[in-house]
Amino acid sequence: MRLNLILLSLTLSFLMSCIKPQMHKGKAIANSTAAATPASNSTSSTACTPTWKTMDDYRLRSAEDVKVDSLGNIYVVGYGSDSAVSNTKSFLIIKKSSDGGKTWSIVNEYQMVDNQNTYSNSIGFDADNSVYAVNEGLSTNTLGHWVVRKSTDQGTNWSTLEGTLGYQYASNQTSRAYGFLSDTSGIYVVGSGGSSSGFTHWLVRKSTDGGSTWALHDDYYYADPEHAIARKIAKDSQGNLYVVGYARDSGTSGAGDSAKNYRWTVRKYDGTLWSTVDRYEQTADKNSFAYGVEVDSTGNIYVVGYGSDTSNIQHWIVRKSTDAGATWSTIVDWQYVSNQNSLPYAIGTDNSGNLFVSGYGANSDGIQVWFTRTSSDGGTTWKTSDEFSYTTGQNAYASGIARDLDGNLFVVGVANDENLDNRWIVRKYACH
User: Fold this and answer.
1) Do 125 and 67 meet the contact criterion of CB atoms below 8 Å apart?
2) Quick one: which of 115, 255, 386, 410 has the fewest CB in 10 Å?
């Protein structure tokens, strides 16, 4: 994901769960404008009106994902360069806050190979609160390596699993790690790996010993030889795994498709076998990509991504299954402006089960605007919760979302300033 929300009236139950407002000590940047003033409620005698506020703004960096551990520590992972040093290639960067986002510290800066780009995609934790950062590191020949970094002491010390150069599915072919999940049986990392023939396979890898050893859990492609890429993974209360991404058709009658296009793909593991449970295209023979997945407290599965129309304009798509992936329906097909791209990257829920989806929508000038949209009725109706630009007329997009232990939401992403420099942005939805 690269650069290419109007305050919501939340439900009464969410507002009643908010904590007593505290003054924010940092400087907020370009807070979103409310479309309407939500009702003010309180847990005692103190009114609580949650708003979005920028909690971290970091120049020449891009924030990609955010997660909160069981101790309440917030971790944001991303990448960026430093124009003040001779090495201007991208570093993996991990920042941490232990005070609800008021202050942040860098706990890891890393390049797999000196003066070669390293990009980060996801972060997560195991049952022991060990931290895992999921990345792609480039070698001297600029081939990507699947790299997982781990800290067992809340970010103080880090090591690279599987050796200094991580993992490659086939030698001299690019591999990329995108998503992470931990459960009682082990840890999973999903992504892609180039085969010896040069075509990319959808990969799910699992470790049962904290990353010391790994086994290939799913190796998938829809058509041979064509590309398939896994992006994110989630688990329902019955123990089923869901991995989302996209896989390309062969463009031959044998594959049942008339053109080489990527299809939105969802694969499910039922404890015994992997199977494809959704293969979707918004328009025949046009690309559709799935980027994020969430399972709510009642077992509904939501997948977000985009589908291209006949003019190759990208639509913000949300699909839902209420029966463990057996059937699916499109519950959102949205554009901020007609005939301009809109694309969601991440989905999450608050303590009341309200859905939040984050990404961007391009305006009439084609400029990307950061959006978080929300639904309080399982995806039937939606409103814009946050609409944000760092600088008017410059691109911004949101790429990750998480809920802290108090029920506050954090959304991360990147925005351009007036000099077209990337800004690592963290925004928080809370009573400030």
Assistant:
1) yes
2) 115
What is the 8-class DSSP label of residue 167? B
CA 323, CA 187: separation in Å to the nearest integer?
A: 25
How far is C-alpha 398 from the chain's CA centre?
9
For residue 50, whether the previous peptide bond is cis, meaning omega lies within 30 degrees of 0, is: no
Please give the average per-residue pLDDT across 1-11, as a whole number. Answer: 36
Alpha-helical segments (H) within 54-97: none
Fold topology of 12-430: Neuraminidase (2.120.10)
Would you say 32 and 428 are in contact if contact means Cβ atoms under 8 Å apart?
A: no
| Residue corresponding to tokens 């709510």 | 296
CB 63 within 8 A of CB 38: no
Q: What share of the chain is helix, strand, coil (3-state, %, to 5)?
A: 0, 50, 50
DSSP state of 15: H
Determine the Cα angle at 204 with ends 202 and 206, to 5°: 165
Q: Which helix (H) or strand (E) holds 14?
A: helix 12-16
Q: Does the pLDDT value for residue 13 go beyond 70?
A: no
**Rounded CA gap, 178 and 160, in Å?**
16
Residue-wise pLDDT for 156-186, tens only, equals 999 999 999 999 999 999 999 999 999 999 9
Of residues 260 and 123, which shows the higher confidence score?
Answer: 123
Half-sphere exposure of 82 (CA within 13 A, CB side): 11
Quick one: tokens of 210?
A: 């904290």
Under DSSP, the state recorded for 16 is: H
How many degrees, rounded to 5, is the angle at CA 285 between CA 301 and CA 332?
35
Q: What is the pTM of this model?
A: 0.87
Please write the tens of the pLDDT for every residue from 65-118. 999 999 999 999 999 986 555 567 899 999 999 999 999 999 999 999 999 999
Q: Delimit the domains of the chain by residue range.
A: 12-430
**324: alpha, beta or left, given left = phi > 0 and alpha = psi -120 to 50?**
left
> Between the CA of residue 382 and those of 41, 303, 375, 376, what are the distances in Å?
22, 15, 5, 8
Alpha-carbon distance of 380 to 329, in angstroms, equals: 11
Query: What angle is formed at CA 146 by the lines to CA 144 and CA 148, rounded to 5 degrees?
Result: 135
